Amino acid sequence: MNKVRFGIIGIGKMGSQHCMxxxxxxxxxxxxxxxxxxxxxxxxxxxxxxxxxxxxxxxDYKSLIDSGKVDAVLIATPHYDHxxxxxxxxxxxxxxxxxxxxxxxxKAVREMNEVAAAKPELVFGIMYNQRxxxxxxxxxxxxxxxxxxxxKRINWIxxxxxxxxxxxxxxxxxxxxxxxxxxxxINQCPHQLxxxxxxxxxxxxxxAHAEIGKxxxxxxxxxxxxxxxxxxxxxxxxxxSTHDFPGTNRLEIDADKGKLVIEGGxxxxxxxxxxxxxxxxxxxxxxxxxxxxxxxxxxxxxGQAKMFFFEQHTGIINNFVSAILFKTPLIxxxxxxxxxxxxxxxxxxxxWTGEKVVLPIDEDKFIEELEKRKAEExxxxxxxx
Length: 385
Hints:
Layout: E1 4-9, H1 13-23, E2 30-36, H2 40-49, E3 56-58, H3 61-66, E4 72-75, H4 81-91, E5 95-98, H5 106-117, E6 124-126, H6 134-145, E7 151-158, H7 165-168, H8 184-187, H9 190-200, E8 205-212, E9 221-229, E10 235-241, E11 249-255, E12 258-263, E13 266-272, H10 276-282, E14 292-298, H11 301-310, H12 312-326, H13 337-353, E15 357-358, H14 363-380
Helix pairs in contact: 4-5, 5-13, 6-9, 9-13, 11-12
C-alpha cells in the first residue's frame, strides 16, 4: 500500500474540516475516496466540494465500509455512534480513527476496545489533537522523566468554553441527554480530561457537583467542580463551565521537585534545586525557601498558526497514516479514549447520586442513571432531542 484510502463518516462541522485537510494536501500518503452522511444538506455540500475530486458519497456508513473503496475510516458522527460504527469498521478489517469523545459511556467503549485489541493488525486511534501541543508534550516529558517528581496536586480550571443560548438553540440535539449524552464534560472537555489523566494518572475516586442548565435553557450540565483522590495520596480538582466570560484556562501541577503551570499559551516550570521531601528532612530553619530556577516555554502567534495547520487535527491524522504505512507509534491510541471518559462518567455519576464514586465505576449503574435522565427529558424537558 503506497497511499491509504480514507472514508470520512459524518461530514458536519468537524468532518467537513477533515475533508478539507485531505483536499488541500495537508495529509501525506493518503487520499480521501469516500464520505458518508445522512443529511441531504451535507450530501449537497459533498456534491459541490468533493464529488468532482473523485470522492464518492454514501448515505449509510455500512455501505461505505462495505464498498471496498477505503482502507481506513475517520468517524466524526454524534457521540453515541462512535463505538457502534468503529466496531463495524474494525470487524470489516478497516483501520479506524474516531473523533472525541470515544463514546458516551464506558461500557460501549470497553467493548469497542476489546474488538480493536482482537485486531492487532489494524491501527486504532482517537482524535486527541491536544496531545500534539508542545507545551503539554513538554509537561509529559517532565512527568515521565521524573524531573517533576511525585505529583502532590493537579488542578485545572477551564471556564473559557463560553457558549450562549444561541449555541444550544442551533439544533434540538444540543444540550440534551439523548442527543449528546451530556454537556460540558462530554462535548467541550474530553481533550482536557484526557490530558488530566495523561499527565496526572487515573484517580481512585471522584466526588463531584454539577449544575444542570445554569443560566441556560438546556437539560445537561454546564457547571462542574470535581475533587479527585489518587493512590499515592495526591489530589486533583477539575473545574469547568460554559457560562463564564471571559473565563480561565489554567493547568497547575504541584510536585515534589517543582511546580508546573500552563496558562495563556505559556508554560512555566519552577524547578527546585532539591526535592521538597529531601529538603524538609534536612532543613533546620524556621521559614526557609528552597532554591529554584524557572524554565519557560511559549507558543507565539506564528507557532499557533503552525500548530493549527500542521499539528493538532492534521498532526493526528498524519501520525495515524504513518502508523498504518510505517508502524510509527500512535500519539493517541484509540484504547486511551476510555480513560478520560471514565473520569467524565465518574463525575456525572457522583453528581447524580451525591456520593463518592470509586473507580472502576459501576458501568451498569451509570447507564441506568443516564437512561433515567433521557426518559425524564422526553416528558418534561426544556429541550427535546
